[in-house]
Amino acid sequence: MQLGQWYTCIDPELEALRRTALVAVHEHNTMSPLERGAIGPKLEALLGSKGADCRIETQFHCPYGFNIHLGEAVYFNAGATILDTAPVRIGDRAMFGPGVHIYTAQHHKERLKRSQGLEIALPVRIGADVWVGGGAIIMPGVTIGEGAIIGAGSVVTKDVAAGATVVGNPARSL
């Protein structure tokens, strides 16, 4: 998985890592904002890296956590999902509307291999000062350049240039 090669997600070692993340995510999602601060302590400890002044609203979901790298002052509104089977690197001051999903896992296209849990993990990179509107989906392997805007409900299947605004499904430049 870490090498960017095909692997099976039906694996005892990966299941143990997902259970650890599940506990951390549950703690984050069930603590009051006054108790947990901007990010629950177990979730914060699980993240790959985190700059100052980041906030993740509840309900949040990630399967591993350790592949998530946040710059400074990153904000996720309610209902974010980051499927972090590969690294997800997010630049300073990036903002995400409610219900944003970031995917790194891509299942095999062949039915038999897919039924065996075969998938590949492709990293996602999101630059500084990016704004992602509510309900947007960022697909595996995508890079979004600094200062870009992703319209609400967009499905981003290809790289987005710095400063560009994209909307729609699939997302296209305005």
Write a structural description.
By secondary structure, this protein is of the alpha/beta class. The protein has one domain: 3 Solenoid (UDP N-Acetylglucosamine Acyltransferase, domain 1). It contains four helices and 19 strands. The strands form four sheets. Strands 3-5-8-13-16-18-19 form a seven-stranded mixed sheet, with no helix packed on it. The longest helix has 19 residues, at 12-30. It is globular. The N and C termini lie far apart (35 Å). The model has no long low-confidence stretch (mean pLDDT 96).
How would you characterize the largest beta sheet?
Answer: 7 strands, mixed
Structural class: alpha/beta
Which CATH top level class fits? Answer: Mainly Beta
Write the CATH fold name. Answer: UDP N-Acetylglucosamine Acyltransferase, domain 1
Number of domains: 1
Helix run count:
4
Strand content range: 25-35%
State the distance separating the first and last CA atoms.
35 Å
Main-sheet strand order equals 3-5-8-13-16-18-19
Radius of gyration from the alpha-carbon trace, in angstroms: 16 Å
Q: Which series of helices and strands comes N to C?
A: EHHHEEEEEEEEEHEEEEEEEEE
Low-confidence stretches: none
Q: CATH superfamily membership, which one?
A: Hexapeptide repeat proteins
Q: Quick one: overall form?
A: globular
**Helical proportion, percent range:** 10-25%
